[in-house]
Amino acid sequence: MNGIKPCWSNIIFVVSAPSGAGKTTLCDKLQKEFKDIHYAITATTRAPRGGEIDGKSYYFMSREGFEKRLAEGGFIESAVVHGNLYGSPKAPVVAALADGCDVLMNLDVQGAAAVRNYIRNAPADDPLKCPLVDIFVVPPSAEVLRNRLVARGTDALEVIEKRMRQAREEISHWKEYKYMVVNDDLAEAYDNMRAIILAERHRIDNRREDYHG
Q1: Counting beta carbons within 10 angstroms of the beta carbon of residue 74, is it exposed (0 to 12), middle (13 to 18) or buried (19 or more)?
Q2: What is the per-residue pLDDT across 84-131, written as a single tens digit (0 to 9) for each?
Q3: How many beta carbons lie within 10 A of that of residue 179, not counting itself?
Q4: Cα separation of 141 and 27, whole Å?
């Protein structure tokens, strides 16, 4: 071996989960450990909430500005949620990949499907034509999920039941993902998440070119 390192493709990791399954907590832990993973920030037209910071929590945009960028093809995926526009800006993801970073995207089921579709249909010279690894995080049971939502103390019971109906619909898409992580114990779930990251970074079929040693 002459010390030359294998040349690996950068990876887009997509994490989805029903509300209350712990997706954001797990993504936050991944960011703290893996400094070479770029976290893709979502853009939205909704107003900032208490403590949210533009460029860190979300990219807060006017509806006009969002629609202009959308028409220019500036989003990998976008959706309308409760009357507001949400989307994943393309430019920061392309820049991160060009800098040699993997990318982590925290998306709902609809957004994950859109990213899969984009990458699947992208031409060979598209900078986003790279390996995609999607992970679905689930609670151990519906009862545990309901208890977590109740324990938050932020939603009325009718809102919780609405979230539960939405969760059942989202969980029905689990077979569309490459991996599933059950978040019963947070430490164990995180160990499984990081194991996926490490394993995928060493897959032979994620290489960009031949390795000659």
Answers
A1: middle
A2: 999 999 999 999 999 999 999 999 999 999 999 999 999 999 999 999
A3: 18
A4: 21
Dump pLDDT digits (tens) for 162-192.
Answer: 889 989 999 999 999 999 999 999 999 999 9
What DSSP letter does each residue of 34-69 carry, written as one string? Answer: -TTEEE-PPEESSPPPTT--BTTTBEE--HHHHHHH
Using 50, 70 and 90 to split pLDDT, how confident is the model at 63? very high
Q: 201 near 194, Cβ under 8 Å?
A: no
- Its pTM surpasses 0.70: yes
Q: Tell me if 7 sits within 8 A of 100, measured CB to CB.
A: no
Radius of gyration of the chain (CA): 18
Tokens, residue 129 = 């034509």
Task: Calculate the CA 5 to chain-centre distance.
Answer: 28
Q: Which residues pair with 193 in a beta bridge?
A: none
The dihedrals phi and psi of 99, each to the nearest 5 degrees, come to -85, 0
3-state helix, strand, coil in the chain (%, to 5): 40, 20, 35
Over residues 52-69, the mean pLDDT reads: 94
Q: Quick one: tokens of 94?
A: 């392309």
